[in-house]
User: What shape does this take?
Amino acid sequence: MAEAAVTVSRAARRRRRWWQLRRQWSMLGVFEITADHEFFRLTTFIKEGVRASVQKGLNSAAPDALTTTHYRATDTHTHKGFSMQTLAAPVFQFLRQSLDISEEQFMNTLCSEENYLQFISNSKSKADFFITHDKRFFLKTQSRREVKFLLNKLQSYVSHLHKFPHSLLVRFLGVYQIVIPNEMKKYFIVMQSVFFPDERIDVRYDIKGCEVGRWTNPDTRGQQVIKVLKDNNFQGQRISLGAEKDWFLEQVRADAEFLQSLNVLDYSLLLAQQPLHHDELDKKHSLANLVLRATKSVDLDEVPDSPPDHAEPLLSRAASLPQSDPGALPLQEFEAHHRRLLPACENAVHVLDGPRQRYFVGIIDVFTVYGLKKRLERLWKTLRFRGRDFSTVSPRRYAPRFCRWIRARTD
Assistant: This one.
């Protein structure tokens, strides 16, 4: 009897907790996808399909080297009421491993019994946005054209991450197509959220480096609503990185040059910040005489002589480093090979610590190709916004302008 009472009490606490969370999320523009939500059936199918896909790779390690076959791989599972196709599965398993995301962790988070959250974005895109219950992984529906573009450029993307293991580009973790006969056919991608963990983030920006249409009214009318602000909202503010400034600006340049080579535009720098706690400030120490090992990773929580093996992603350990010298590398040479010291936190590739603030940074929305439609839009905007900066310009102009905007506001 007592045991039954304890069980009831626990169930009641769980219901209260979920009620409180649902109320909080609804105020933030993030809504739990419960059984009466229009996307509940779709997200239930997504979880079932992803679970079947990932389980297939649980007993096999990610490939040490990727081949053309890996990039072209397709794997289809048929389920009751729908089918799921996984695209380039070995490549994305390799990328997940590079971030130290195990297949079990990926599956358990994406396929948890906890409901997904729907994020209501102020983006002009018609895509649907879902977030896992812990807000770690982001799911976004994509058009067939966008998915085809990503798969065609996937090898270039992986090569860029190999050369720049701490790139600011968003990390793609999976591409799928779900088909519900006579109802829908949708592609969706899974990404690592730039803003994770977000418990202390109080302001978010989406930066394109131009002025037209780049203002969001920050007034929430007293409600706790997430508003992603834009370039013109950032007026009078700075990105204060201190010692990380040079690395950051160089990485922005390298990433923008890569995107220019793909002939894309309209990408954004997601930016958020939160104050560093006292204990986080205490952990920052002088790096003047720091010596790093090419075969070891670096964690600011540990002494440099014995960093933990798990602290830095696989792509960050040996890629791009001189293979002829496995010995010690001075800090300057380490940085010259596109490295930086990763903070001891989750999602470290998207986190930069300045003297007083922790910044979450990532470059997103990399699918807009400068084709005929965008060229015609540029001509129209040239006449409509004469003498003003707008987003639709050629990639050859977009990339350097993007870099200039960020450089002018970074200390």
